[in-house]
Amino acid sequence: MNFLEERIVKDGVVKAGNVLKVDSFLNHQMDIALLEEIGKEFKRRFGHKKITKVLTIEASGIGIACFVAKEFGVPMVFAKKTVSINIDGEMLVTEVESFTHKNKNRVIVAKRFISPDDHVLIIDDFLANGCALQGLISIAESAGATVEGLGIAIEKGFQFGGRAIRNLGYDLESLAIVESMDDTTGEIVFAPQK
Ligand code: 5GP
Fold first, then answer.
1. Half-sphere exposure of 98 (CA within 13 A, CB side)
2. Measured in angstroms, how far is the CA atom of residue 110 from the centroid of ligand 1?
3. One pLDDT digit (tens) per residue for the chain, 194 residues
4. Ligand 1 atom index nearest CA of 15
5. Among the four 20, 75, 80, 120, which has the fewest Cβ within 10 Å?
């Protein structure tokens, strides 16, 4: 098991409805040393590519994306779920269905922050059905940017998002792929890492 899988086994909690709670270390209370290690691991996996920007979606992707952006020495941009009065100029807009909240959000990025010259690395904490990633891909590509890769902390391999995105030809790397999990026993099984 890698460092993230070990931490998931130690502190993750399996909930009914295919939800894995990792809020004690990843997306509510955050273990900064772990986030730093995640940032370094994505640099190791995508470091051979030219990355000019890291893109994520608020809120829970932001922490991880900051550490990835620091490793690459590039800005991090996050898609916002509400139209803030502070955003001006043209916007890139898409709709994303939330896995955890079961509602649809309009997510936006100011057009001036992603340009056709950008080589984007998309980062998020979880991959379930792939709606969040599809939305981020659509935002980057509507700006004319190149999606160089997608980095996910935890992919739930028994849901279809990962397969759909790999089938579209994108370079998707997940640090932990949950093959199965059981909310009655708490058991979590990971897919073998390459
Ligand atoms: P997707 O769009 O791939 O269906 O779901 C990904 C988004 O839903 C992620 O941004 C994440 O915030 C949330 N999510 C999906 N599954 C889980 C889960 O099992 N646990 C937690 N904490 N968040 C999840």
1. 13
2. 24
3. 999 999 999 999 999 999 999 999 999 999 999 999 999 999 999 999 999 999 999 999 999 999 999 999 999 999 998 766 666 789 999 999 888 788 888 999 999 999 999 999 999 999 999 999 999 999 999 999 999 999 999 999 999 999 999 999 999 999 999 999 999 999 999 999 86
4. 19
5. 75
